[in-house]
Amino acid sequence: MTHESHRVQMARSLGRLLKGFQSLTSLPAMRAQRSHPSACVPCRTTVALPSLFSFKPRDFSLPNSSWSSEMMRLYDHYNSQCEVEAERGETRGGPWQRLPSYNRSLKYATGGVYLSKIIQSRARLFTRNIREPGAAFEYVLFVNKEEQRCVCIFQAGHLLEGPPGHVHGGAIATMIDNVTGTHATVLSGPVMTANLNINYRSPVPLGSTVLIESSLDTKEGRKTFISCKVTSTDGSKLHTEATALFLSINVSHLLRGG
Ligand SMILES: CCCCCCCC/C=C\CCCCCCCC(=O)SCCNC(=O)CCNC(=O)[C@H](O)C(C)(C)COP(=O)(O)OP(=O)(O)OC[C@H]1O[C@@H](n2cnc3c(N)ncnc32)[C@H](O)[C@@H]1OP(=O)(O)O
C-alpha cells in the first residue's frame, strides 16, 4: 500500500469516526448502561453504539467504584433526564443525552484495526489513559441539544495535583478543552481548538467533584465560539471561567500534519 493510499484510508476512517460521534446525539436514545450499585434511575437499558464500532469497547463515562456520592448524585440527576426509548423504537422525554467516552479512536473505527497497528497502536485519549479508577480524570458529559449546552461532572483524582492539595491548572485546562471541544464537535463536526482563554478564580480541591458547563456563544462560518465555567456542584463557588474558539477542519488537515 502506498503512502498516499494510507492517507486516503485514514482520512476515510477518521471521517466515519467523526460522523459517528456527531450522529450519537441524534440516535433514538443515548441509553444508560448502569454498573454502579447505588445508581437508581428509571431507565435500565444498554448503551447504543454507532455501527462503526465493531465490538464493545469500555465506555469510560459509566460509573465506577471510585465515584464519590456527589458524583453519583449528579450522574443520576442528569441521567434520569435523558431520552429513553419507548415502545416501537420511539423516544420519549428527556432534554439530556449522555455522551459515551472511549480511550482509543482509530482502533474502533472501521479499518482502524489495520491503521492502529501501523500508526496508532500506542495512542490513547489523554484524559482516558490511566486505568486505575479514580486516579486522574473521572468525568461524564451530558449534552442538551435544544439549549446548546453541555454539562460535565468531573472528579479530580490524586494524580492531578498542582499546588498542594489542589488540582493542576493544566489539568483544569485539559478538561475545559475536552468539554468545549466535544461540545463544538457535536455542534459543528470536526474542529480544532484555535484559541483557549482561561481565568482561574479559585483553586479546585483535589478529590472534589465539580461541574464544567459549556454553552454556545455563536457560530460564524467555520468558527464556533464557546463559553465555559467550572463551579462547585451547588454553583455557589466559581473556580474557573473560559472562552474558546474552534475552527472547523477537513480531516485531511490532520493528515497533512496541520
Ligand atoms: C480533531 C477532531 C477531534 C474530534 C474527535 C471526535 C471523537 C471524540 C473523542 C473525544 C473528544 C475529545 C475532544 C478533545 C478536543 C481537543 C481539541 C484540541 O485540543 S485540538 C489541539 C489543539 N489545537 C491545535 O493544535 C490547532 C493548531 N492550529 C491549527 O491547526 C490551525 O491554526 C487552525 C486549524 C486552528 C486554523 O487554521 P486554518 O488554516 O484552518 O485557518 P486560518 O485561515 O488560519 O483561520 C481561519 C479564520 O480563523 C481565525 N483564527 C485562526 N486562529 C485564530 C485564533 N487563534 N484566534 C482568533 N482567530 C483565529 C483567522 O483569523 C481566520 O479568520 P477570518 O476568516 O479571516 O475571519
Automatic annotation (TrEMBL):
InterPro entries: HotDog_dom_sf, THEM4/THEM5_acyl-CoA_thioest, Thioestr_dom. Pfam families: 4HBT (PF03061). This is Acyl-coenzyme A thioesterase THEM4. Its main location: membrane. GO terms for molecular function: hydrolase activity. It is a peripheral membrane protein. It comes from Seriola lalandi dorsalis. It is an enzyme of class 3 (hydrolase). Residues 165-236 form the Thioesterase domain. Belongs to the THEM4/THEM5 thioesterase family. GO terms for cellular component: mitochondrial inner membrane; mitochondrial intermembrane space; ruffle membrane. One of its GO terms (biological process) is apoptotic process. It catalyses: (9Z)-octadecenoyl-CoA + H2O = (9Z)-octadecenoate + CoA + H(+); dodecanoyl-CoA + H2O = dodecanoate + CoA + H(+); octanoyl-CoA + H2O = octanoate + CoA + H(+); (5Z,8Z,11Z,14Z)-eicosatetraenoyl-CoA + H2O = (5Z,8Z,11Z,14Z)-eicosatetraenoate + CoA + H(+). It is found in: Cell projection, Ruffle membrane; Cytoplasm; Mitochondrion inner membrane; Mitochondrion intermembrane space. Its EC number is 3.1.2.2. It comes from the Eukaryota. Keywords: Apoptosis, Cell membrane, Cell projection, Cytoplasm, Fatty acid metabolism, Hydrolase, Lipid metabolism, Membrane, Mitochondrion, Mitochondrion inner membrane, Transit peptide.
